[in-house]
Amino acid sequence: MTARPHGPGQVPPVADILAGDRRALATAITLIESTREEDRGPAEDLLQALLPHAGNAVRLGISGAPGVGKSTFIEAFGTRAIAAGRRLAVLAIDPSSERSGGSILGDKTRMPELARNNQCFVRASPTGGTLGGVARRTRDVMLACEAAGFDLVMVETVGVGQSEAAVADMTDLYMLLVQPGAGDELQGIKRGVMERADIVVVTKADGALEGPAAHAKADFEAALMLHAGGGPWTPRVIACSSVEGTGLDEIADAVERYRATMAEAGALEAKRAAQAGAWLWREVEESLVAALHADERLAPAVAALEADVAAQTLTTGAAARRIVQRLLQRDVDSGSR
Ligand SMILES: Nc1nc2c(ncn2[C@@H]2O[C@H](COP(=O)(O)OP(=O)(O)O)[C@@H](O)[C@H]2O)c(=O)[nH]1
Ligand SMILES: [Mg+2]
């Protein structure tokens, strides 16, 4: 393989990615995440070539409030999975990270064992696009990792904005991490988030927090019961300590059971198909909004409408309709489809 410079615009050979070449995968991800307009075409062609080779991973979504123990859990759980023969890719969506910012390193240092392990690929993605703190290309990055032979993908996101929904929309199993002291915690968790959790993990069930963790487990079990029903899987609550290693086997076991239960009912394939459809519409929405913001000819009219809305002389509905009409009219004028 020839050495090539690293950076946006580089298109790695598909064969290298399929062979599991980490450098080729990293280059592919850089291309996929590139926001340069001229990189979109090559990135899409590359993903199209990788798509038939993707789909063979167990996809786990991990979310929870900052400090709840996500990184520590992924390190402990992931290290065990690798010992059991898995190849693990960890994709961390970090709202605070920039391409060259310090938090990428920060996330790696919080998963020191995984970052060093050559059966593991750790990647922190900066958030981009308009989806409230969601890395726009994370799903594509996940597919590239699968094509490269990673058979366990853990997508970590901080519990803010719409990122939980986006992660639940791209993974097979959505895990919500909570910590002991859940009385207040329970109130703070948005309804929709709880309802989507396939497994709730109560972290830090060790030392002085062991008792509170048991209480939190009971609280969340009661809360989940209210949402139970629908689908072949009944959500579970499991307490663990990433530091002491307790509860991790039970979680791994629950993941296996979830996969088996869903696969048996034909529900896993159906879920992935529905997710792809939902993701399509996310992309359409984002692309339209991005096109609007990028169009300098529309900018004065849009700014004027924004000002009218701010001054409360025009309804938001009417302004939105006019903006959309202008966008549609633009494409008729320029003859594009
Ligand atoms: N006692 C205990 N502390 C933990 C455990 N897991 C994480 N922590 C601590 O909780 C803090 C936040 O952990 P971190 O994994 O960075 O949380 P994140 O922000 O959700 O990724 C750190 O100080 C960890 O050492 C655990 O299982 N037991
Ligand atoms: Mg973290």
Quick synopsis:
With 337 residues, this protein is an alpha/beta fold. The chain is 53% helix and 12% strand. It has a seven-stranded parallel β-sheet, sandwiched between helices.
Number of self-contained structural domains: 3
Q: How many helices?
A: 15
What is the 3D form? globular
Largest sheet: 7 strands, parallel
Write out the CATH superfamily name of the largest domain. P-loop containing nucleotide triphosphate hydrolases
CATH topology of the largest domain: Rossmann fold
What percent of residues adopt helix (DSSP H or I)?
A: 40-55%
Task: Describe the strand arrangement of the main beta sheet, using strand numbers.
Answer: 3-2-4-1-5-6-7
CATH architecture of the largest domain, by name, is 3-Layer(aba) Sandwich
Q: What is the element string, with H for helices and E for strands?
A: HHHEHEHHEHEHEHHEHEHHHH
> How much of the sequence is in beta strands?
5-15%
Distance between the termini: 40 Å
Mean of all residue-level pLDDT scores: 86
